[in-house]
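User: Mind token order:
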Amino acid sequence: MLKFLIISIALSWIFSQLLKFFLKSKLKRFVDQVNNVQREETQKAKPKNGNVNVDYIPKGHQEKRTRDTNSIDGEYIDYVEVKD
């Protein structure tokens, strides 16, 4: 009976150590894979030549830009102060 108990404890300890090893290796491989995907996505998101591309301009901002560029404030007139 004692021999059976010692063997079962030893086998369960060995099994737990093997399970721990395999789970750690699988988890490490998964984390590495997720990090690689994230790194690839961030590299795709960055512009390569330093230019920034804008895909969307809100309507209110676009109307304001066209109104500002189309408005004519007049021309600059240099004035001389007249004394009475």
